[in-house]
Design goal:
Layout: H1 7-11, E1 22-23, E2 36-41, E3 44-47, H2 48-59, H3 68-90, H4 97-122, H5 127-141, E4 144-154, H6 157-168, H7 173-180, E5 191-195, H8 202-210, E6 221-223, E7 226-238, H9 243-269
Antiparallel strand pairs: 1-2, 2-3, 4-5, 4-7, 6-7
Helix pairs in contact: 2-3, 5-9
Length: 282
């Protein structure tokens, strides 16, 4: 759910060990970044939790697994971040409206993502909820007809009638497709492979539904592409995927709906007063 810094990285701070680090003095209000630090920068502590997060994000390694040179490089990277940020504050950069708005939006997005992750951890999709969604969608998932056919597309009804006449006379469908078809399947004997109602023009699908396997259409089939003559080679009904095959997809859908409902409930319970654009409310 994240781009620059994943919510999973933020949440992983809870598991970071405090070994091999200096410990700051106790405080009445515990520092959410933790009491340990890896270095000081102009007298300001660099929290161990921030350092560990940076090594995972940039080096894809736990801080405990870094070589001395890697650790020094990572520490310099973190120091560079702090120093650039401090320079920006000193120059008043973050007081500029556009930048302040960007920072506020980034903060809100990150905090919301972290909260969303925590919400879904505490409200994960249950097997019963997922099974209910699967059964609700089962009619749509299964029972879809599939057809395997060859096709000859020509420009006029008269041409299609001539093709049908030649088929009645015993000429092979594939040969006629190569000779007469104007569509892209002509060179390969008119082979369409397997198709469904979702992947083929509707007049062809409707004609296939009325035909018997092994027969060709006795009347031209008109579509936006011209006039078709169809040879139905096979037909079958597609079986629905099993619950286990769709488990991950269903889980994501259920949890997405839960999160959207939670957000909707929060908005419904909040008092939202739209401003007039000049600092005042309606």
């Amino acid at each position: 759910m994240t781009k620059v810094v994943g919510a999973w990285l933020i949440l992983s701070l809870a598991s970071f060990a405090a070994a091999c680090s200096k410990t700051a003095g106790s405080s009445a209000t515990p520092d959410p970044l933790g009491p340990t630090y890896v270095a000081t920068l102009n007298g300001k502590r660099i929290p161990e939790s921030v350092f560990r997060l940076e090594t995972i994000a940039t080096m894809r390694k736990n801080a405990d697994d870094l070589t001395p040179d890697e650790r020094k490089a990572a520490l310099n990277d973190v120091a560079g971040l702090y120093l650039l940020a401090d320079e920006g504050r000193q120059k008043g950069l973050f007081a500029e409206r556009t930048i302040a708005a960007q920072l506020e939006l980034s903060r809100l997005q990150l905090e919301a993502r972290v909260m969303a992750t925590r919400f879904l951890e505490q409200n994960a999709a249950t097997d019963a909820e997922m099974q209910a969604v699967y059964e609700q969608n089962l009619p749509r998932l299964g029972g879809q007809q599939q057809f395997k056919a060859k096709n000859i597309v020509v420009g006029t009804k008269e041409e299609a009638d001539l093709v049908i006449k030649q088929l009645h006379q015993g000429k092979k469908f594939a040969d006629l497709a190569r000779e007469r078809a104007s569509g892209p399947t002509g060179p390969n004997g008119g082979d369409l492979g397997w198709f469904t109602a979702d992947t083929m023009v509707q007049p062809v699908v409707e004609a296939a539904r009325e035909m018997k396997v092994g027969t060709f259409s006795t009347e031209p089939i008109k579509s936006e592409f011209g006039y078709h003559v169809l040879l139905l080679e096979d037909a079958r009904t597609q079986n629905a995927p099993s619950f286990e095959e769709l488990r991950d997809e269903i889980k994501n859908a259920v949890e997405r709906d839960k999160l959207q409902k939670h957000i909707h409930d929060l908005i419904a319970a909040a008092k939202v007063v739209e401003g007039d654009g000049n600092g005042g409310g309606n």
